[in-house]
Specification:
The complex is a heterodimer of chains A (about 110) and B (about 120). Chain A is an all-beta fold and about 110 residues long. Chain A contains no helices and 12 strands. Classes of the chains: A mainly beta (about 110), B mainly beta (about 120).
Amino acid sequence: AQKITQTQPGMFVQEKEAVTLDCTYDTSESNYYLFWYKQPPSRQMILVIRQEAYKQQNATENRFSVNFQKAAKSFSLKISDSQLGDTAMYFCAFRGGADGLTFGKGTHLIIQP
Amino acid sequence: DSGVTQTPKHLITATGQRVTLRCSPRSGDLSVYWYQQSLDQGLQFLIQYYNGEERAKGNILERFSAQQFPDLHSELNLSSLELGDSALYFCASSVSLGAAENTEAFFGQGTRLTVV
C-alpha cells in the first residue's frame, strides 16, 4: 500500500514570500500520478497541480511549482509570491492503478499580511 | 464550481440510524469516488465505481455500501451509525479509470454528517 508523508503540520508565511511544502511517498508502482490539493476554509477540495511520474519535467501552474525527485520519492510544492487567498490546508496525494487517491495528513498554511 | 453535486450539505442523525448521501458527477465523467474526512483518520478513500460497476475498495466499513446508477449518479449508504462516523464525506468524479489515463478528480463540496 502507498504511504504519503507530510512532516509540516502547520506553517506561517508573510504575504509575497515564497514557501515550500514537503511531501514524501512510498510505493512499489512504476506508473503513478502525484497531486497537490488545496482545502480552504470552505472545505472544497481544489486541485492545485499534478505530476505524472513518467515525466521528468517538473509541473508548474502560475505561482505553483513542484520539485519532483523520483529516486528520492519526494514531491514538494513551492508557492511563489504567496497571497492571502493561499491560506488553506494543503494535501499531497498519490494515485497508482485504478484505486482512489491516497492522501497525506496535510499542512495548514497560513499567509499573514 | 467543480460540477460535482452532493446532497445534502449537512446531515444530523442519531446513533443506530441509516442515511443516504447522494452524488451527481460532472457531465461525461464515468468514475465516481467516495472519500471520508475525519479529524482522527484524515482523508480516506472508501470506494470507486466506474460506469455502474464497483472497481476499487478502500477503507470502507461493512456497514457502509454504495452504488452507481445507470444515469451515473451515486449513493453512499451508511447504516448502524456510530458517533465515530461523524465526518465530511466527499464525492469526486473523473473521466477515466486508471493511472494510465487522465486521472484528475473533481471533488464535490461534501456532506457534513454529524451523528449524535
